[in-house]
Amino acid sequence: MEIQENKSTLSVVPRNTDKIKKIWKTALILLLITAAEFVMAFTLPRGILLYVLFMALTVWKAKYIIMEFMHLGDEVKPLIYSILVPIIFLFWLIIVLVKEGADIFDLRWF
Fold it and tell me: How much helix, strand and coil, in percent to the nearest 5, is found in the chain?
């Protein structure tokens, strides 16, 4: 039997500055959205406006994360819609269930 020598070479690849800029841009956008949510949480009065703004910013942040980190921004439109449309209906279902539950609670106890 012949003994094989394991020779490995390390090749250094230069930095891809476009990818690094895209990563920093993504981090900055997510940081700004999160900072806006944080500021609104402590400055705006509690109410429907605050909740709608939180939901809108959360959906916007989730969309951006899906497009960037799951690489759906480079995919074809039907694939994107097949993922985003059920998520929208899921949010609608949650809102309707909370509203219906609150109405049933009000009818039962008041």
Answer: 75, 0, 25
